[in-house]
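Recap from last week: sequence in, structure out.
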Amino acid sequence: MDELPGPRELLALLAEPDRLRAVAAVTLGATSLPEVAERTGLEPRAAARALSRLVAGGLLDGEAGKGYRVRTEALQAAAIPPAGEAGRDEEPGDEVLRRFISKGRLLAMPAARGKRLVVLDHLAGLFEPGRRYPEPEVNQLLGRYHPDYAMLRRYLVDDGFLDRADEAGPGTRSVKVYWRTGGTVDPSAPTSS
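Predicted structure tokens:
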């Protein structure tokens, strides 16, 4: 990946504990999937998923079987604001949100990935970090923004803002649950805990 992650994308990548542990292991010298799994205590599948997302997000270079390395240039680029953005009153994504969200409704999903990530980051704010949401609740929250809540849910998972798993439900049925794994977090926002 040639594109470097910005500060928000970098924080979103590191907001999930497995990814944070994986990047720490690579930073400390682990170069292969087995080494990362061993040093982090993660199952190989979880370590592989974390490494894959870190590579896709531009923080790591490499692939299974060939080794991994931290892209230090990504960390340096995220630490220095682009020319002309320091001191602005408006957040960089505000214009994108005004263009694609009106009166609390998503008008269209942006085709450009950068703009789509701004919208998805905004939607990820609907979900409290650390809380698990059953699929019907996710559908209800996203359905307030757009009738195709399944599309929004899929984008949020695919782009690393939410993760999901099957959990045992009543009887023998399994229930899909979702939790937040990325996006901008407002530390001053009230929580339900």
